[in-house]
Write a structure and sequence with these properties.
Elements lengths: L1 E6 H7 L3 E2 L11 H16 L5 E10 L11 E5 L1 H18 L9 H9 L12 E2 L2 H11 L10 H15 L3 H12 L1 E9 L5 H8 L8 H10 L4 H19 L1 H20 L8 H12 L3 H19 L6 H12 L6 H12 L5 H20 L7 H8 L8 H11 L9 H10 L8 H10 L12 E4 L9 H7 L3 H8 L6 E4 L2 H4 L4 H6 L23 H18 L8
Parallel strand pairs: 2-4, 2-5, 3-6
Antiparallel strand pairs: 1-6, 3-4, 7-8
Helix pairs in contact: 2-7, 3-4, 3-6, 5-6, 9-12, 10-11, 10-13, 11-12, 11-15, 14-16, 16-18, 19-25
Length: 558
Amino acid sequence: MKATEANLLEFIKKSNQFSIPIYQRLYSWTEKECERLWDDIITTGSRNVPSHFIGSIMYIEKGLYQISKPEPLLVIDGQQRLTTISLLLEALARQIGDNEIQGFSAKKIRNYYLINTLETEVRKYKLLLSQNDRNTYISIIEQREYPKDFSVRIKDIFEYFTSKIDKLSENDIQNLCLGLLKLFIVDISLNRDHDNPQLIFESMNSTGKDLSQADLIRNFMLMRLDGETQKRLYEYYWRPMEVEFGQEAYSSYFDSFMRHYLTMKTGNIPKIDEVYEEFKNYFYNTQRDNDEELKELKKYAAYFCAMTLDKEEDKELKEAFSDLRELKVDVSYPLLLELYNDHKIGILSKNDFIEIIRLIESYIFRRAVCGIPTNSLNKTFASFIKSIRKEKYIESVKAHFNKMTSYRRFPNDEEFVTELKYKDLYNFRSRSYWLRRMENHDRKERVNVSEYTIEHILPQNNNLNHDWRQALGPDWEKIQQKYVHTIGNLTLTGYNTEYSDKFFADKRDIKGGFRESPLKLNRGLANLDTWNEETILQRAEDLSKEALKVWQYPQLDQ
């Protein structure tokens, strides 16, 4: 390894080409990072300082350069710095055109730092990115339209800098040019025959600030291999996972997927910032080769995307996953990954799989209603699979739910109904979730709850009118305070504005009122003459009985 300090622009200028490994993309870019770099360059240019250090660029040299055919430098750290600066330079070139500012002009910027004028095809470009990052980057350098399947990150970075430069005064552009001239990096060159790129790469990224856990795992699985093997494994396994997640979801979901995957495989829950280290331990212990492990990851990534990113193709499973997602119980995914795989290989039938998903949903919702703390749920689901007898799948799942006690218990019908009647469900984690589930339970013609709003039959307004006070009696304030957000007083309507704080009889009889409502939740309201504590409690009783059918207890013959 050889490391020296270098002026960034001179470093780019003298280098023939930087090639980014096929598996590296700019998923980790954030606008905040670009803003910080921009501020550093402008500030450096406006002050009397000789230089500004922006980090390192580490690359692998294949060997001695040949005069006729120089080999590109394979960048394994610093690709984001190179890409960001290159896009900034293109944005600057478009702004200053034929003018020359501090030695910069459009022609000089492009010929010194962006393209190799005497080369053609891919050798023409100083920086060669991977996959559709490359096509989007080249379209910008060539001043063409973005490709159809453009890279969101590349487009965002370029447009960010373009908008910044458009707002600069002539003096600010001078400072920008001066700041660019003062940028310095540490130039680290490796020789594959003598250095271990993976170990050096890990030590440089030991803080975890530059790369996500998924980035580290990807590099661990691919970087140590020769170029052809890297390309094959990336295109067969890793690239399909990136496509499955999508550009945006990959950066925000992939680390979580890896954590759930390891929890499922090992039974232990790694900290999110220790997923990479845990994965390495797991990989070495299983003694799988890279092909086998990447194939396994690809399979489970597809399951994860189906469950979490609404990519399930089966209508019934899609609906069950959607309802579970609304409760935001990510800790159940290690168990669900195992179940999904068993479903795919024929051990678990679709009907039984759906029933288990519904039991998990019921377990979570009942516990939330009963106010049971959630801090034990991660361990509950991490160890759940050990209790399943796969020859009697659904029975063993129900048996395990029945056997859990204390803070891990599955609330029984009596506890659930008692708490449900008086629970503040208006301020529940998802207001519309439970109303939607009750409205659509056992309905083939589904109601789109997003088109309705939650209605308080007895209004929230503390200043109730005379009719309401008379109907509720002398304790109207206590009754309102006690029941206003409970199940007995809440429903759905498309006429929230028309209802306002009107009296019950008016809400019932106006156009679009409870008498005309097509909603199942409002059927019992059409025949009532008034609304008071007694009718609120009666409706709570009726809805609670219905809730037992929606969120069922795991019944099992003793």
